[in-house]
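User: For a reading group we're discussing how well predicted structures match intuition. Take Transcriptional adapter 2-alpha. Before you show the prediction, I'll give you the sequence so everyone sees exactly what went in.
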Amino acid sequence: MERLASFSNDPFDKPPCRGCSSYLTEPYVKCAECGPPPFLLCLQCFTRGFEYKKHQSDHTYEIMTSDFPVLDPNWTAQEEMALLEAVMDCGFGNWQDVANQMCTKSKEECEKHYMKHFINNPLFASTLLNLKQAEEAQHNETAIPFHPADDPPRPTFDSLLSRDMAGYMPARADFVEEFDNYAEWDLRDIDFVEDDSDILHALKIAVVDIYHSRLKERQRRKKIIRDHGLINLRKFQILERRYPKEVQDLYETMRRFARILGPVEHDKFIESHALEFELRREIKRLQEYRAAGITNFCSARTYDHLKKTRDEERLKRTMLSEVLQYIQDSSACQQWLSRQADIDSGLSPAVPVPSNSGRRSAPPLNLTGLPGTEKLNEKEKELCQMVRLVPGAYLEYKAALVNECNKQGGLRLAQARALIKIDVNKTRKIYDFLIREGYITKA
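Assistant: Thanks. Here is the predicted 3D structure of Transcriptional adapter 2-alpha, as structure tokens, for the group to look at:
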């Protein structure tokens, strides 16, 4: 059992017993498993096994008492506290009254014990000295360390940055010229005197009220500038540049509404739209991969590299380099010249120009063993072989186009391309085939 307790002899200083609500006197019991706050019981409630909520009678416990020696074997901790309280109440040197208040020690015992352990004790004196030195060191007057701050910046008065900051003075948190800077001029000639008429007095009061409203507007604008960090313009511009151009345009448009939303809500709004823009751009990129037949990111990296190379070559391409491709073929060269003439005159070229540098056409797809081949007729098999489309995908696209045609009463090529997310040339061939065979009708 641990003999620990609050050394105060006053039962009113301790919380009451949780069982009977009586004031606790030592010894009493403290539950070691419940709390905080401490779960305290008197000996009567403890002996009858009092239980309450989470507290059980089989919990470990501590006996709280102060009848153990601290400084002297003949003095308990409770008597030590009683001696200090008596000296505090009766005064140092009034040992007879101190002994009368303690009731357990004589006048000589109280004086001898107090002088030995609290006045002439070297350990106690050194402890007081250390505490005094620590307190003095804590309150030593030292120079306040100064570190130059850059936010907000502190430019010279006549500098360009000071003009950009509208004459803001950071040390005073004020401006050289306030908003509505001459609002005080309307009050310079106002003087309230006793012989003013009621109308004149009301007029002066109205002028003061107007001045107060102008001061409120001035403070409101200062608060907006402070809350949104508009003083440090350079830092504000750096934060704005981290967004894409589309989001920067939105940022510029929504800046005038920032005073309505508040700083945190405004930043959340811009961040959410920046995230939406990133998601839309990523979705568009993935859709481009899917339209090109790419199903993994390894192929996507190769596609991006080749696309970048093609774009660079297209930028470097000139009319001379294009005509040199057909210099060996007179008919192709003639077609290219006709095509350029049509383009210059604003007409769409009717004849495509054969390219000697184009890729060889892929061989027809072998449908042997592919699922769904048995569901196709000969013409459909020929179509799948030419456009290199597996039978299962063709049947799925065919069903989608036929269903949409039945709903709409007709189908256009643009609608077919919106339904089938594959190469547009393949979509055109499937669309023409289904119209030619009578599966769908053109809208």
